[in-house]
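Q: What would this chain look like folded?
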Amino acid sequence: MRSVRTSVGGSLILLSTILSWAQEVTCEQVLNQATEEFNSGRFYGVPGMLANCISDGFTREQRQRAYLLLTQVYLLLDDPLAAENSYLEVLEANPEFATDPAVDPIDVVYLSKKFTASPIFSLYARLGTNVSINRVIHEILPASGPTPIGTQYTIKPGMLASGGIDWNYSEHLALSAEIGWTLTDYKRERFNVFGRDRQIFFERANWLQLPIMIKYSFSRFYKSQVRKFLPQAFAGVSFNYMFSSTGELEIFNNNQGDNGLNTIIASSPKIDFLPYRDQLNTTFFIGGAVKYKWKLDYLFADLRYGFGLTNLVANTTTFTGRPMQEFGHVDDYFRLDNLSVSIGFIKPLYKPRRLKKAKTRTVLKSVKKINNNE
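A: My prediction, written as structure tokens:
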């Protein structure tokens, strides 16, 4: 009994697959037949021939071809409204479709210049890593001995994640806003503290960031014919809020003649540094990106450098707090720059629509150029 059920089930699956394949082939045949009717000058029957497959049966590519054929039919039948509606359906099927004066009828090319499907808005998200660069405004040192205290900052990798939206003012120019999270990390070493000791300080901070920028997208790389990779440049301002900051301290004994040379003599737990930080910070940044065309969307790689505009250390400093009193730590006044690298995904929100002003001036130039080349 089970084998019979299995056979029946398998037959039904096979039958449905054959019917689906047959329907696809039939719609392709219908489209080919409609094209033959059009080429033979029999225009009136073409819309009826395509009606069933347009409602349910055509693939996206077939819908583009079918509606482009209908656009030509309605132009010849002097039905401009139906022709315009058909061309909008062409752009719905393929938002990046563009007519070619060397292939498409001139009246269709003229009509196409009245419409666009370019996205007004694009959504994107990115993930990446960053390093923070401390720019010291004023060095503040604890009491030292006869040997001067030396300071060295070291970059450490952090992480970031953000999402944003582009408002596309034109094909090349866009205004963008993001909201994101960034983790910054750095290390500071001080030498000859309390004589010859070495002090190491690690700080890790979490930020909520709101960058606003202007982007300019190029059509291609300089003198390149490849349009798969598109460069982009941008600049803007980021408003940042530090919502957590923790620091850790280690002090090493480096006294000459001491058996404890280079051993830790003091180590702190994680200390909350928010009371010693100005939590609101502003950054000016510049950067660039390379977008890779993937179907109707984009993948991209982003590189940007941010110049910190605000002193991160609160006016109270750490002279009056636990880091100084227990571990001899005091902050320099400093700004925090940031270099980040990220990869992401862009989703353009295509919108087929009629232009307020048709771009038909270039059509005659294109036709003349084609005729001259021939």
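The chain has two domains: 2-118, 121-349.
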